[in-house]
Fold:
Amino acid sequence: MTHRITRHRLVARTLLSLAGWTLAALPAFGQLPTAQLLSVFPAGGRQGAPVEVEIAGADLEGVDRLDFSHPGIKAEPKRAAPILAGLPGEAVPNRFVVSVAADVPPGLYDVRAVGRFGISNPRTFAVGRLAELNEEATNISFDKAMTIALESIVNGRTGAGAIDYFRFAARKGQRVLLELWAERLDSRLDGTLSLVDAAGRELGHSRDAIDRDPLMDVEIPADGQYTIAVYDMTYQGGSDFFYRLAVHTGPHVDFVFPPCGAPASKAPATVFGRNLPGGSPSATGFDGRPLAQLPITVDYPGGPHVAQLDFAGYLPSRSVWLDGFSFRWPADGANNYLLTYAAAPVVLEHEPNDKPEAAQRLTVPCELAGWFAGVDDADWLQFEARSGQAFWFQLNCQHRGQPSDPYLLVQRVTRDAQGKEQVTDVGEVDDEPSSNTLPGFPVSSADPVYRFAAPADGTYRVLVRDLASSTSPRPYTLAIREPQPDFRLVAVPIYPSTAKAKTVKPWSLLVRRGGTVMLDVVAFRRDGFNGDIEVSAAGLPKGITARPVIIPSGQTAANLVFESAADQPTWAGTIEVLGTALLGQEKVTRKARSGTAIWSPPASQRKPTPLVSGRLAHTIVLAATADESLPVKIELGGRDAIEVALGGKLQVPIKVTRSGYNDALTLTIEGLPGKLKAKPLTIAAGKNEGQLVIDVPAGTVLGEYSLVLHGEAKINYRRDEGGLRAANEYKARLDKLTADPKALTAAKAAADKRVAAAMAAAKPKPETVVLYSPPARLKITAAPVKTPAKTPPAASAPGQKPGAK
Amino acid sequence: MVRSPRFFACCPLILAVCALAVPIALAATTSSKPAAAKSPATKPAAAQAADSEPIASLELTAADEPGAVAVLSGRDCRQQLIVTGRTAKGRLLDLTGKVAFSSQPSGLVEIDASGLVRPLADGQATIEARDSRGLIARARVDVRNCRGDLAVNFPNEIVPVFTKFGCNSGGCHGKSGGQNGFRLSLLGFEPTEDFEHLVKEGRGRRLFPGSPDESLLLKKAVNAVPHGGGQRLAHDAHEYRLLRRWIAQGMPYGTPQDPTLQRISVYPRERSMQRHARQQVRVLAHYSDGSMQDVTRMAQYEPNNTEMAEVAASGAVTTLDLSGDVAVMARYQGQVAVFHATVPLGAKTDHFPPTRNVIDEAVFAKLKTLGMPASGVCDDGSFIRRVTIDITGRLPTAEETRAFLADKSPSKRDALVDRLLADGGYADYFANKWSVILRNKRRDPGYAHGTFAFHDWIRDSLNRNLPYDQFVRSILAASGEVSDNPAVAWYREVKDVEQEVEDAAQLFLGLRIQCARCHHHPFEKWSQRDYYGFAAFFSRVGRKITADPSEPRVFHRRGLASSVNPKSGETLRPTGLGAAPSDVSPERDPRQSLVDWMAEPGNPFFARALVNRYWKHFFSRGIVEPEDDMRVTNPASNPELLEGLSRHFAASGFDLKELVRTICRSTTYQLSSDPNDYNASDKQNFSRFYPRRLAAEVLLDSLDAVSGSPTSFGGLPAGTRAIQLPDSGVNSYFLTVFGRPEASSACECERSQDANLAQSLHLLNSAEVQGKLTSGTSTAARLAGDKRPLEEKIRELYLSVYSRPPAADELALARAHIERAKVPQQAYEDVVWALVNTKEFLFTH
Structure:
């Protein structure tokens, strides 16, 4: 198996390289190799049990470490028997034995592969409490269904144009849940489940019950054998189409209501779910299957947790701005449910409120927990406000994973002279417009955000509706809070597309000696917060630095650039990205969240499908390699901020440090404020210096900005010099050994082969790399006040605009 | 690739001796199944006795009801008399042309032999009709306004002339650009425009009030000046006089106080007629002031079945050679009324098969009225084959058939229907049907995700037996994204309001209202006002672009739902067809109100449209045909059947499986397709089962099943059958050649059931079919290696292909052929090939 996958990867890479060599006109995918993890199979394991996994991806050379986001999960490379006494057994490429400690709570964690090309993007690794087994590949016809037991999880992968079948025995009256995990595990599978009884009758069918993953809930009609069909919606398949299918009679939590509570409080709530021990029937259900309910008390954390999102479950990129935590009930089982912190006293929605005249009375501020409960449900609310009072409305439903399209209408209610009610619209909000979308990490949202300012004392009415109406209940929260200006950050490594080849893929940061890498940081400004946010990195290893950058007022993004010193050692690990800003009088620091793209758009599709989306990860990581270095480095200004006054000229020196790269470079500057423009600057072949000159006219917004220089260079790249070095070292060790000449000969032959392969791989070939300078700080200050008597006019005559000469 | 010479050499033998193996002639959708080639239905020997029955009394009507006084107002007015004779047995016969008329006092009116009364002088007269045996009937008329002429009213009197003579038809001056510079509104729906064109256009040369006969309008009409349309009027015609008088009066338009046309009525409304009999009808126009005018000779007539009746311009209906029901539409100025004639066959109908439910009651009652005996109940083999194909879109297997034939239970047919309805095949087959008319179409590769999801949703809804009103609501009021709510895929394909209006009306109401988008519907009451009032339901459909541009998000845009009638500029509220405007708040999605209206118990279209659509699925012909063109002027062949079954369907909570169950359990559905002596030419009364060719997908699946060689479809799992394909985006020459639809419209007519040479050739000698017959895993290969006795294997073949055992001669022949063969597999291939190239295989019967 390993051999096959490895060979395939080699073939693929050779083809790519050939394309680079022979078809120079084609846009080369320019980036130097960086470990990319596409699948881990099986994508999970059981508490307290070891599991052998196989990883697949790109640029996974020398991967000997898997990093998990939970310390209780560890992996060791799977080792083959030593070929020579005295030598350790060779690691079997891409195979690991993962051990999950018994106390790791069930949930979803991140795993990253660490090898010579750094630390990869994350993939999800699930921890469960049920027995696990892997699918047999022969189960692709009904007759050859694989037999599995109830209360187990089977790990599988669909084949193209194929259906996987599983068979289990169940007894009459059992409430069996079939839950397929695929999208939530970073799989490309758009899973579909169907359950058929022994007579061939379909008992149930499920597609997108939880996100895009199916959940089937069946009351077994008679003792007997039942067959599950698992397939991709459009019958696609392959190693990227992995899944976990849980078949069990244990508890499943659908909702906790209210899904929010005050920080540092013990709050009563109701769990809605299936097979809940001690549950009683509820009035709600899905697809005709009733849910049980059970009163509980939720312990909401306080302190710094309140500004964090700490969830051991699937969080698509659109959920990035929630603050909340994983809640699990009962503690030893069931699934994680995301609870959020309420910004105001929690109020529960109560029906009937479908008509304006039956609007539910609220006292604001508050946070309403409600339901969209059917195709035509309209929730009308009403509150009193005084003239000038301002509130922020924030509705969270789609963010909570519901496929909803919420909508808000705010009206003012008055009475005319006859006492007749008059209604005027005050505000109407649908989707939140977002300029924050990053490639592969969409954060635009259907959840409305609205600033309400009462135009007069009086009564105000709110309509909450779901425009994507559904028969299933969908819980939401609506905060109506006094302004609490704040911000959140997310850091997402974006694949650096060259000018000619734009693409999206899961990406990670690997900095080579003398080089730089860039990390996109996006801010969510809450409740009108508009101050500067200084973004910096912490926890960096020796030899790596990142100059702090500014997200200026009015903007939402900045780029952190990590630069490597000439003596930087090889390293891979977790770092922190921090944002600091002045909230009122208080200087507040927030930790950035981590985001990742999940897939490249499949080649067969001309555009990203909804399945190619981003998600939140648990950690921000960085790697550095001492094995490779870049032959060129660009710098913009120095470490000190460049100051320029309105009306002045910005003159920034550009420095190119060459160590083997002598071609011309065309460089553009990014991050200039407002309307400032600079033409690309070309540094001629062999030259090392240049200067950008930019006029800073009056009217430029004052403030501090971060500028980055950007360019592309075609270099001759020796792939995997680390691999070559390792092969040579290995051979050197062998040379020292004298015992057993026969085995030595065989081992030597293998080592020669390995060296030859590494040599071939390291043959130079043209590649395009994207370069970034470390950021320079630009400070634009107010134009200096000129006193004609003391200083003769230099730039502006009186009455003229500064800089208008 | 053609069959090997070996194949052709042996085939004539097989064909000659297998009584069934008539070389396929798909061209004829024959009504008798080949296996039991009955002699062609002979003319019934039923007595046409009514003519000889003596008339017991006479009745003369001049006005809208017997006994009323007819008012004749104005010199150019005309009134049709109708004389009806009643026999002792209560039969009614038209005697209008067979009596002598006279009037008292004389000089007030003149009456011609056809019973047409013209006024001569003011006064009240009594008209008398006397038959040859001296029976007398009388009626009174009141003649007014004969002295001075009344002012002509343009919309009420002149425009109908243009309609009557086809001047304003779509092929002539009525087309949008007019004809040779002269334009009239289509069928006169816009009299003010017509008035403008006539009186003000062409620099006034069309009309000369000073010398009316010199008017170009009249000179063209009588072809005195060369006229592309030839002579339309004679100099002495009533209409010529009317036009001349209007011109002489200075071309008045009429005044706002003038009465306007409200409706028309036809008398009599229905009659039982014999074949080759005549019935005069009278058409009255009813005006807003309560007045009436006889427009019998101005109306236009059209029978819905031209094989059954023809109508003269005078309004005389003549039946032809066939018996059954015929409806004659009378059309006048956008108003329609219908005369229904029943032409009984008159055969003895004492013995009907057992009546099992509402269907049989209505069908057999109708057949009794028609005097048309039903065929007998079909045998078990025919039933299991027919019902398995019709419910699940596949052939029964040999084992299923064997077990069914052996089953002695009296309720085994009902049990079979229930079993098939519980089978996933039911959902497969009906999802295939719905997916096509819901236009589930892969427009480009990016659509595949949505089309798969929508097909899956349809199939699952049917499998779960989602009530039909909820099914329709899920589609028409769909919101969200395809991934979360696949039914919004309908809005992806049906993109603009017009398409939404027209598809919704055609699919769920059985109404084609396309015409009313631009002008009043020519054969229906639907006006642009109706069309745009209906369109208002779709006026708040919004679409948002999502991450995937090929999957937009559909939503309700808040606001007052309305739509503007482009002709009048009037703003219309959402209004169900023929209903009062709905009161929808700006916050509510009007599409929900639309489905509320549809699913109301009293909705006249919703349940009927579905029942009729499903009826056609099982009986090849709708109770109204075409099934989605239901209108007053295209009445049901059995209104009680449509009404009764619709009521049953609505009362069941729109339970689709219950409807199928009711249909398939009825004796009517289980009648034999073999005609008896009387019903061979019946095409609409369901006196027997009408055979039809298998649909393309069913045929391919059947061929796969019989040959043992399944077709594989690219990208889909092995074992996927043609009826399970998610959309028409899966290539298959076989399916194309046999008429698989492309899902481009809401009409089931897109599926072609026609026959052509390519189909015959494909079945006879294509590489595809030969491959299926001769593959290593084919049925032939399996049987050749099977150690069972030969006879048993032949029996199994017949059971799997025809759902019946072979007849003795068939068995002997097949046996001889196989025993003679040097290569047994080839002999089996020959037999399978011969069996599938027969009508018995290709048709459901």
Remarks:
- The CA atoms of residues 330 and 420 of chain A lie 53 Å apart.
- Chain A is about 5% helix and 45% strand.
